[in-house]
Task: structure prediction
Amino acid sequence: MENNVTNTCCFIGHRKIKVDNVFCVKLKNLIVELIHKGVTRFLFGSKSEFDSLCLKIVSDLKEKYPFITRVAYTCRSEGCVLESKKELTKELYSKFLKGYVNANEILCVDEEFEHKTKYTADRASYVERNFAMINDSDFCIFYYDKNYSLEGKVGYGKSTNSGTRIAYNYALSKKNKIILNTFNLL
Result:
């Protein structure tokens, strides 16, 4: 690390993303650069391919940078597996599935933060959770495509007002945040 400052970074992106190996390398390099700038806490939601990709990259980097912390912000029927429970989870899944489960394939986090609306809200809980992640972060890494459409997705009609768009605009309004849109890496 270049300095002793502790910073936090959140990841927010569309449920479906189009990426290739070049994008993944650029994203990994961006995360490594953030670690070198003092980012030690990484916040993740769920329900998106972008979140899953970022969690996998940060988890892989944890081997080289063991001081980084992965935090799942959960809401509305979401859950996570804590790293401390990884082996027990592997054992339980293996018994349940009547076959071996590789513990390295279970994506784990170091901490869970249950958003206050986890058990009380519907779709709005995701928006509120994303706002909380943004508020708790110094850096916000997005995968935001302004042309992304929810058309054809159950319950959305022809809306282009995705949760990622709402979160992106919210982050922009918080003028003290450093916001990076990785969609532009494509």
